[in-house]
Structures are given as C-alpha cells and as structure tokens.
Amino acid sequence: MPQLVDRTLCLLYRVLPAAHSQEQRQTADAFALWAGEWIDLMRHMGFVVEIPPDLQFAAASAKARRTGKRPAPYGPWARLSGCCDALYTFETDLWPRFAAIRDTVEFCPGDHSGCATALAVMWLLKGGPRVAGCIGGSALHGPDAGPALEEVALSLHAQGLDTGLTNLKKLPRATALLTRAGFDISRHKAVLGTDVFAVESGIHVDGIAKKPLLYEPYPPATVGLERHIVVGKHSGRVSVRLKARQMGLTLPREAEEHILEKVQQLAESQQCSLSDAQFLDLCHTCHPPESLSSARTDCCGLSGATASAEVGHA
C-alpha cells in the first residue's frame, strides 16, 4: 500500500525566524501548537508526517503530549527529487534507472514544469512505495514542494486504488488550518477549494443532475464538500429551476424565463455570478412570496428522482 508523506511542517519551519527575541519565541510557540494540530489531522487521515528534527518535541501531537510519548523518527529514506521534466521520459529513463531500488527511494518530483502530481501518480502506479509532497502543492508552497498530496490521493482513488487513507472528508479542516497559517487558498483550488463543486453552466447542471460521473471523478462528500448550483450569465432554465428548489421554492414555469433573463442581466452588470441572497431577492421581486410554493428536495446534491424528473421535462 503506498505511503504519502506530508512535508508541510518542514517547508513552513524553514521560514520561521530564529527565536532570539520574546516576540520570535512567541511566534515559535504558536507554530508548535499549530504543528501539533496539523500532525494530529494528517495522521488521522492516514498521511505520514515529516517533522523537522528541531520540532520533534515541541510539536508532539496532542496524543503524544497526553501520553508523554515522543514522536517516532521520520526514517532513513533516500529522497529522489528535482525530476520536474521527466514526464515524457518516465517510462524510458526515470523508472528504469530507479526501479531496482524503489523500496528505498522516496519520490518527490519538483513542479517547475507543472507535472509533479502526474509523475507522483505514475511512480505509485508502477509500484513505488512512497511519494513525498505537501497539502496544497506548489500552488501554496512553491515548485520545490513536490506534488499536491491531496491531488495524488484523489487521482488514485478515482482509479479505484486503495491508498490506505481514511477520513479525507476532513480535508476542509486542513484548508482551515492552512488559512489560519496565512495561506490564501483559491476557492477553485483542485480538491481543497470550496467552489470546486459549484456548477453554473446550464449544460453542466443538466448533465450532473442526470449522471454526476459525467463531470465529477469522485462524489463531493469524499472530501467533505457539497455540490451546489451557482446562477449567472451562463445559466439556463434548468439551473434556475433547480437553484430555486435548492432554496426551498418552486417557481411557476412561466416565471422561469423571466427570472433567467434578470439573472443574466445582473450577472453581466456585476461581472460575477449571483449570491444566494441576490437570487432569492430576484425570485421574490418577480413573484411575491405568496405566489411561490415551498419545496423540500435533494437538489443541493442534484441527485434522486426529483431532480432527474425536473431536468427531463425542461
């Protein structure tokens, strides 16, 4: 079973200022507490955590602090890194050179060419036992950080391979911890972004309502997220109808086209999709609340017979 090694603490520890002043000592203490939370979370999900030697005792996990046990040493693995241009020569050059010693090599490809995740997945598919990287990958930590481990994990998961990882639905907690540490994580960041399962285009909404696997390699709940409809200039009548149902309303059929026109006009003028409050206000402006029926459906997940039947009659 492959092991995914998280280097996040080592990358952050490198830029931590030396504790020469009281303020710097307080910063180091705060980081140690943050590191303890990070270690607990990563291990709970099944990742191996690389801990800087100087932080071995200060950043012991909460369980270790309670029991008085010290963290286990990281281990004597040789790290193979810097292979950022090897995607097209992997089969002919990289793998043949290192296959014989793969059980002692920890692969950590750089991401200067944007292919670290692909290389890491190929390494594991070939039988390599370990890959090192970090949560967030180069988008957060720079190209030398290695592959984004969450992307490697979900790539393997999508192919039906057992990674030994559990509780990946706790990844939003990792996003929250990284945000607390000062990282600005895009809402559209693969796997971690809060809006990666937001759909606006009418054809996408239609397709996902009928068969989610057309657009999604794994269910949103796998990583602790939910699918949700966003209405904007690319929306269609199906999007408007299902968004209304998601918010507990049933629009009269004759109102859908009118509301869609208003949605597209507002989205165009503000150059972004509408918020839930804006959409609800439009619905109530076009049709007073007493003319709208309340509805309780599973359209937030775009699943089940109700959503499919609605789409089928669009």
UniProtKB/TrEMBL annotation:
Q: Which domain of life is it from?
A: Bacteria
* Tagged with keyword Cytoplasm: no
Pfam family of the protein (one)? HCS_D2
Q: Note whether Hydrolase occurs among the keywords.
A: no
Q: What residues does the 2-isopropylmalate synthase/homocitrate synthase post-catalytic domain cover?
A: 192-270
Q: Which PANTHER family match?
A: HOMOCITRATE SYNTHASE (PTHR42880), ISOPROPYLMALATE_HOMOCITRATE_CITRAMALATE SYNTHASE FAMILY PROTEIN (PTHR42880:SF1)
Name this protein carries in UniProt: 2-isopropylmalate synthase/homocitrate synthase post-catalytic domain-containing protein
